[in-house]
Amino acid sequence: MLSGALASGVGYAIWYAALKGLTATRAATVQLAVPVIASVGGIIFLQEALTVRLALASLMILGGIGLSVVSHR
Predict the structure, then answer these.
(1) Is position 69 within any domain?
(2) Range of 47's domain?
(3) To pair with 48 at 20 to 30 A between CA atoms, which of 6, 38, 71, 73?
(4) Phi/psi at 32 (5° precision)
């Protein structure tokens, strides 16, 4: 329980520090990358399988985020 609380606390501290430099729209868009980050962590630390479905879904998520960030410039 302590480990989870510590990890969450550090994660939130980093996120709120990063929010200072982002607009609300950009922050919401970038936050959509969380499932991709979690799946990469699962692959690296838990030796989960990288499937074609996961790779395609991750690419679509990151592509959508990229389009949103580029279109706002």
Answers:
(1) yes
(2) 23-73
(3) 6
(4) -65, -10
